[in-house]
Structure formats: structure tokens, C-alpha cells
Design brief:
single chain; about 200 residues; alpha/beta; Rossmann fold; 7-stranded mixed sheet; 9 helices; 7 strands; about 45% helix
């Protein structure tokens, strides 16, 4: 039985976008039906224009599909990606989550597998608090949070049992390395494995 996987994310300069694309690819390789969706940009043009990488990323993804409530309703498993914003979920993703009240009220967000990934400039820049803040919402959904824990030896390398995280460095340009790519693959495989068992 094929599992439906939605990868829903917000990215300002491309790091979370790269992580989301890796997660979507891992889902496809595992045989899942995958929807890759970014949420709408809410920041004013003046803010976006002040950071060249931000403007470049917004323009590059302008024609790609944005997330709708149906993407979560359709999914058996959902991975959310957000950069860390002062130790919390970016407002763009939070706005999307906050718009799901009607679906929540109908019970359409419950009993699905959820997990998350994030990035910040530094290793201690709020990765864990961002994921835990995200999971507060998912608990209210009645979702089943499937964090990676230490279910694979590679998690002792990346050190994040709550999800997957990446430290981009001060210039936001540190590329994803094997450690993060393998951790994303593991997160996807684990989420799909549990979602498949629930669907069966």
C-alpha cells in the first residue's frame, strides 16, 4: 500500500528548500506518493529586497505550488520544515498552521504521522526549541509525532532526536552535508514506516 507524504515548508534563503527537496526525494525513493509544497511568503517586499539571497529564492520558487489545507488532509504523513526564528517556527509556516482551524474542527488533521526539520545559523541557535514549538501545534491536531529519537546510529552524529537540523553558518551558506542528508532520509523512512503501519 502506498503512503501519501506531504512535505510542507517555509524557506527564505533556500536552506529549508534544499532540505525539503531531499525529504521529498527520499519519500519518492521509498515508494510514497509525494506532494512538495512551500507556504506563501508574508514578509514585505522591502524586507525581502534587503537580503539578495532572500529575493533570489522568492523569485526562484514563485511559480511552484503553495500549500493548501487539502495537502494535509490528503496525506498520511506530513513533514514540516521551518527556519528557526528566535527559537521558534517562522511566522509564514505558523500562519499556514493557524489557518487549519476548519480542518482541525472536523478531525481531519488527527491520526496522521508528523515530524519536522529546521535550520539556524549556529548549532545552538534554537533548533530544538523550534521543533518542540512546532510539535505543540501537532499535538493539538491529534497528530502522531514520530521524531527520530536515536533509532539509528547516525543520530548520534547529528545529535538531534527531535527531528533534523542544520547549522548554516554566519553567511547562511554552509551546504548540507552527508550527516544532514542521511538524517533526512532516516526521518522520512521512519515516518513512512509508521504511517504505513497505521494505514494497514
Amino acid at each position: 500500500m502506498s503512503v501519501n507524504l506531504a512535505v510542507i515548508y517555509y524557506s527564505s534563503t533556500g536552506t529549508i528548500d534544499s532540505m525539503a527537496r531531499r525529504a521529498a526525494l527520499a519519500g519518492e525513493k521509498a515508494g510514497a506518493d509525494v506532494r512538495l509544497r512551500h507556504v506563501e511568503e508574508l514578509a514585505p517586499a522591502s524586507a525581502i529586497d534587503s537580503v539578495p539571497e532572500w529575493r533570489e529564492h522568492v523569485d526562484a520558487t514563485a511559480d511552484e505550488p503553495t500549500a493548501t489545507p487539502d495537502d494535509i488532509v490528503w496525506a498520511d504523513a506530513v513533514l514540516f520544515g521551518s527556519p528557526t526564528r528566535f527559537g521558534n517556527v517562522a511566522s509564514q509556516l505558523k500562519n499556514y498552521l493557524d489557518s487549519l482551524g476548519p480542518q482541525w474542527g472536523e478531525g481531519l488533521l488527527a491520526d496522521k504521522v508528523y515530524a519536522g526539520f529546521t535550520a539556524a545559523q549556529t548549532r545552538h541557535g534554537g533548533h530544538e526549541s523550534t521543533l518542540l514549538a512546532l510539535y505543540n501545534t501537532l499535538h493539538h491536531f491529534g497528530g502522531i509525532v514520530v521524531a527520530p529519537g536515536y533509532t539509528d546510529p547516525l543520530k548520534f552524529g547529528d545529535g538531534n532526536p527531535y527531528g533534523v537540523s542544520h547549522a548554516t553558518g554566519a553567511g547562511n551558506d554552509a551546504p548540507l552535508e552527508d550527516e544532514q542528508l542521511e538524517a533526512l532520509d532516516h526521518l522520512v523512512e521512519r515516518a513512512l514506516h509508521v504511517a504505513g503501519k497505521l494505514a494497514a
